[in-house]
Amino acid sequence: MYVSRVKRTYSSEIDSLLSGEKWQYKYISFSFPKEISQYGPDYEHDPPRDFTEVSDNVKEKVRAIFAEIERVVDVRFVEMSQDPGQAIIRIGQCRVANPNAFYPHDHGCAGDIWLPATDKYRAPEIASFAHHAIRHEIGHALGLKHPHESQPYGRMPAEMDSTRFTVMSYDSHRDVRALGCDYGDLPQSLMPLDLLALQSLYGARVGVPASDDVYSWDPSTGARLVNGTDRGGATGSYVFEMVADSGGWDTFDFSNYTNPLTISLRPGEACHAKRPPDVQPDNCAERIAVFTPHILDGKADFLIEVAIGGAGDDYIEGNHVGNCLRGGAGNDLMRGGAGDDLVEGGDGDDVISGDEGDDFLVGGGGRNLFVVFPGCGRDVIPDFKAGSGNVIDLRHFHLKSLDDVAMSDSEAFGGSATLQFVEHGGERGGQLTLIGMSVEAIRSEPDIILL
Q1: For the domain that residue 115 is a member of, what is the CATH number?
Q2: What's residue 178's pLDDT?
Q3: Closest C-alpha among 376, 375, 300 to residue 361
Q4: What's the pLDDT score for residue 40?
Q5: What pLDDT is stored for residue 277 in this prediction?
Q6: In which domain, by residue range, is 66 found?
Q7: Domain annotation covers residue 68
Q8: Locate the Peptidase metallopeptidase domain: which residues (predicted)?
Q9: In the chain, how many domains are there?
């Protein structure tokens, strides 16, 4: 018996993708049979007609998808070339109208994937429908169903039943244009809910040796670069993928981009181009949407820690761990989120907030607005200068006057001024240290603090 029954998780986003059974073992064999006889004499489904072995191109794509899954799911795929008929997942081509696959089960055809014997399925291009379909069918072979199907554990919420969230969906994302892509743009990877569902079935791959990786993209080709090395994926037009990196101190680098971007490191969110509503897709050269994975059981292993903005006016936000956020050029809006963050505006007139945690906030060039929220922790600004046009925004504390701010000079950092404040009528406070400043300098220029 190679399969086991899957229990409901009571998370609709996960349960709506579960077929009800999974492969029982962590090692799953796969093969590319050369002859129909290798499927055995008693095939428990309609016998395939006009069988052909899949091409080397398809084999390469399948191996790459399995490798993609192995990096973040606690499962290993073992290719069987000596006795391909005995593999759990067998991939072949025959006369079928559409690709199809069988769920994990205890019958002989379970796990089999059949692709149409047509040219587009012999040489599927990156991000083509055929390439997307192969990834979709592998999802079925591992135990994922379509999200619109009700059995066994219900349908996915309608607002999430799209390729924005899962490759198992039949629907393109309704707001895909708002994410910088176009209708019909297909995912080039598993998507956030696919990963969440597979990890719920087989476990998340955590605690493995990890490297510090830098992910960047070529705006002209869509190719993904990892640590400066081209890892393929070039579509010639757009990027629409999820990046799940297990462990390490990892970076999203969008410094190649000139159009405004929204960059979010929060689990399940997107980094995407901010396309003006009157700009048509063909006139938008930088079509990019990169997604971060959801996290299972609170694990932070698959988070991205560093974000680097482009030359446009970007919105950049961190997640709940310590982040390093760099705005680059442009007038950026930056929020650190929870955790102890380094937030650096770079050139331009930026709006900078560390949010929660003890944050290090660097304005860089331009006239910057530092926004402080109740519960901010002990933040430090190293380059705040009187007369530079920089301003500290304390309006969220609802203070009555500057007298509500406790200020003191310190010899820390070679001389600094520390401001302490508590929200009016509340208990949440904060502390802000301005390196190189003094209480006298602040009081002589009260307009640098907004109350």
Answers
A1: 3.40.390.10
A2: 52
A3: 376
A4: 82
A5: 46
A6: 21-142
A7: yes
A8: 19-185
A9: 1
Q: Is 357 left (phi over 0), alpha (psi -120 to 50) or beta?
A: left
Three-class secondary structure of residue 134 per DSSP: helix
Chain centre distance of CA 142: 22
Q: Positive or negative, the Cα torsion across 122, 124, 129, 132?
A: positive
Walk along the chain (451 residues) in steps of 10 and give the mean pLDDT of each run: 90 97 96 92 75 96 96 96 94 94 93 95 89 97 97 94 92 59 73 96 84 92 89 74 89 95 94 62 62 78 93 96 96 96 97 97 95 94 90 94 93 92 86 96 91 91
73 lies in some domain: yes
Q: How far is 284 from 279, CA to CA, in rounded Å?
A: 7
Cα 307 from Cα 271, distance rounded (Å): 10
137 is catalytic: yes
Q: Quick one: which of 315, 330, 17 has its CA closest to 161?
A: 17
Tell me how far apart the alpha carbons of residues 359 and 433 are, in angstroms, rounded to a whole number.
10
**pLDDT at residue 174, rounded to an integer:** 56
Which residue among the candidates 13, 21, 68, 137 is catalytic per the annotation?
137
CA–CA separation, 124 and 418 (whole Å): 61
Helix axes 56-70, 129-141, angle to 10 degrees: 50
Tracing tokens 């499927």 back to the chain, one arrives at 39
Cα–Cα–Cα angle for 304, 308, 309, nearest 5°?
A: 125
Report CA-CA distances (Å) from 247 to 200, 211, 243: 19, 7, 12
